[in-house]
Amino acid sequence: MLKFLVRRLTLGVAVMWVVATAVFILYFIAPHDVARTLAGKQSTERVIQLIRHRLGLDKPITEQYLDYLNRLLHGDLGYSYVNSMPVVNVIKEDLPITASVAFGGAILWLLIGVSAGVLAATRPRSFLDRTVTAFALFFYSMPVFLLGQLFLLLLFFRLTMAGFDIFPGGGYVPFAASPGEWLRHLILPWFTVALVSASTYARLTRGSMLEVLGEDYIRTARSKGLRERRVIYRHGLRAGMSPVVTQFGIDLGTLLGGVILTETVFGLPGLGQQIVTSISDGDLPVIMGLVLLASGFIVLANIVVDALYAVLDPRVRLT
Amino acid sequence: MQLLTVEDLKVSFPTPDGVVEAVRGVSFSVDRGKTLGIVGESGSGKSVATQTIVGLNPGGKVSGQARFEGRDLLTMGRDELRRLRGAEIGMIFQDPLSSLHPYYRVGWQIMEMIRNHTDMTKRQARQRAIELLELVRIPQPHRRVDDYPFQFSGGMRQRAMIAMALALNPKLLIADEPTTALDVTVQAQIMELMQRLQDEFDIAIILITHDLGVVADVADEVLVMYAGKPMEVADRRSLYYRPHHPYTVGLLESLPRPTNKGQRLKPITGQPPSLIHPPQGCPFHPRCPYVMDRCVSEMPPLDDADGGVAGHRSACWLPSDIAGASPELDAQRLDVAQRNRTAVAAAPEGGAR
Description:
The complex is a heterodimer.
Chain A: H1 2-29, H2 34-39, H3 45-55, H4 61-73, E1 79-80, E2 85-86, H5 87-122, H6 127-140, H7 144-161, H8 179-213, H9 216-223, H10 228-240, H11 242-258, H12 260-265, H13 271-281, H14 284-312
Antiparallel strand pairs in A: 1-2
Helix pairs in contact in A: 1-14, 5-6, 5-8, 5-11, 5-14, 6-8, 7-8, 8-10, 8-11, 9-10, 11-14, 13-14
Chain B: E1 4-15, E2 18-30, E3 35-39, H1 46-53, E4 61-68, E5 71-72, H2 78-84, E6 89-92, H3 96-99, H4 106-117, H5 122-135, H6 141-144, H7 154-165, E7 172-176, H8 184-201, E8 204-209, H9 212-218, E9 221-226, E10 229-235, H10 236-241, H11 246-253, H12 293-297, E11 303-304, E12 313-314, H13 327-339
Parallel strand pairs in B: 3-8, 3-9, 6-7, 7-8
Antiparallel strand pairs in B: 1-2, 1-4, 4-5, 9-10, 10-12, 11-12
């Protein structure tokens, strides 16, 4: 296990270095001159040269590259001139919001998807099975922004108009400020993120469980006189989770970017919105920082998922 | 009273293609310390029959009776039957690798069985699991108890399955093709182990197999099934030395034997029939070399055969005193068949021996 972690973390660092280098190159081929932008339209060539010198942009590229790597290693992602603060602070401000939306949504979709899938698989072709399938297809074909808008229309607007002020129309309250409000503000975004993904997981779990429940060891479990619940959850689900974990690994990696739409619909000032504004403002340091953050997250998610395989299946050896 | 008495068991399954009549009226019984062998090809209904009795075949339409110590397994509540499974009726299956859960330790799986039916603590159950592994002769059981099934060899896995099935001293063990997936040498060890444990704990065994060679060594009584019906029932000796039903004769002749060295094996030609539309009359008639007019229209009853040897019964229209496998007897059978056959219902091609 330790050997595995060391190996994968080393590999992860290598991947991050490649990403960092790619981002650095991007910075130079991007069609815009930072110094000129900073100096403003009225400035003279001398001012621009001064700014260039102060930012170290007149140094040779190799020197700049090494400086950049050095700063990265010290956790310095640069300075956002648009936000007038270090990129690290921008991320620190927005990450809790995105993490709240993403992880809450992920937990919710796992719960909904897996339990719906198990229910459907244990009663194949029943009314319940068909209902689950119908709902899964419905939400699967539903774009996130449409579902979010529908939630806003029906559960925020209509309900509030009718006098039931249960769901807010957007915004974010930090958990530390008020856990209850935090929850209240996140319920609709969570369901928006979760329902679309949950349908995939319901279908996946159903298929996997149907296969597993036909296995010989399930018959053995029944022949031992175990209760059906135990047969399904202890013996069936444990084995049926492998494809779900695989899928979760993929989804977890893309999750940070995946909540952009949800954040936009519900006016949550998270990383997703930050990405959108940074791109339109040309705020390169923030874009670079976010790309690095997202890559790091994908690398980490992959390691976690691979380790999870070994936890699930003793036959998997981590090397 | 016998430990288990099954009477006129019928099982059918509705499928999109029609109703599959998997078992069509089978009766058998087995007592403590005895072994009943059920023999038949794939699809003869032997596994379905036994799995239905213990409630492992939900979804089928079942009729008949299966009295276990006087209680009917087919009508008792699901929970009551569940409590019997494992505790009173142990089961082992064909492929010991796929029958053990790949994700759990062997010892854990045995402990689960014990703790499911008793109040033993984890420590006690673990101790018992180690004892059981020792009983089935797993080397270093105190260490092997923490192994996963994939760390066991095929024979060891089946031993572990047997240990698990016998964990609670059941009265009946249903062994569904227990040696089919194993090497011949390991097969012999497993059969030997089962017999030793049977003698030690006075267990009744139902041994399901397609291999007459396996039951030859161990079964007290043998039931031959075909297309969901009983074809012949007899004690082992009578069945082997004086088989009456042409299907049993065919099965015996298709076994490789040292006396047939250098000769080709004699297969039974043709395929087992569809169970959605089983043939009229005797289900074996399309493949029988001795088919007579009567066989096509009328199912023969399971009647005394072998000239009245006790308990030897066969479902065949051939005279009850022609029993055994030899070229002379085959000629006698053919002779009878020809005299009772119009030209239309000729013997199947290549079926004549």
